Amino acid sequence: PLLLSGGTIEFDNVHFGYVKERKILDGVSFVVPAGKSIAIVGSSGSGKSTILRLLYRFFDSDSGNIKIDGQNIQLVTLESLRKCIGVVPQDTVLFNDTIFHNICYGWLSATKEEVFEAAKCAAIHDTVMNFPEKYTTIVGERGLKLSGGEKQRVSLARVFLKAPSILLCDEATSALDSTTEAEILSSLKAIASNRTSIFIAHRLTTAMQCDEIIVLENGKVVEQGPHEVL
Ligand code: ATP
Ligand code: MG
User: Fold this and answer.
1) How far apart are CA 218 and CA 192, in angstroms?
2) Which residue's C-alpha comes closest to atom 28 of ligand 1?
3) Rounded to two decimals, what is the model's pTM?
4) Residues 193, 167: contact at Cβ < 8 Å?
């Protein structure tokens, strides 16, 4: 069957290891109600990005269930699942192509107006218009000609264009200047409104903007609640 909408996300006693000998997720359970946002915090290597990889089905869990709107994600088509989900990854991968094509990656039917609008929402339009070759600027191998913040905003523009019902954001660990950081944060806030969102948060400011925070430790959820109570 197809996954038709992307509302409530549910992890129910999920176990997972990349290799048999080493468990990464050890019975993870949580629910993100439709339209709400959660932040996942935890030390480096605790399995935060792994949770997103399972939701996007880069890998399948060893046991337990992951459901979206009550539908087990292993029982719906991969295409319909991924259509509902927008990902802002920890390290944005860009293709050695123009900025325009990097934004409409996967949506070749997008019009110029739609791409510009998405870029404006992601606070990257003005930056691009200041490049000598504007939207036809080639980003270089893995996007090397752009700064970290610019790359992340290009991937944000991609997500704005896709307008998915679920947003997964793996916050970059690298330091951004405070202006860029504030810009990205406000774009993310705009993109997350009315969407079911999971933020992997390295910054306290990000975590505090979410409805709930989950603390992950040794592959287990050790605390959960709104930030006021944690
Ligand atoms: P960070 O805050 O540094 O991004 P994280 O909580 O996102 O950390 P994960 O990327 O989920 O951590 O990785 C959890 C553990 O799984 C790490 O110890 C990592 O070494 C291991 N791991 C991640 N990807 C793979 C892989 N493809 N194959 C084998 N082990 C992996
Ligand atoms: Mg990570």
Assistant:
1) 28
2) 18
3) 0.88
4) no
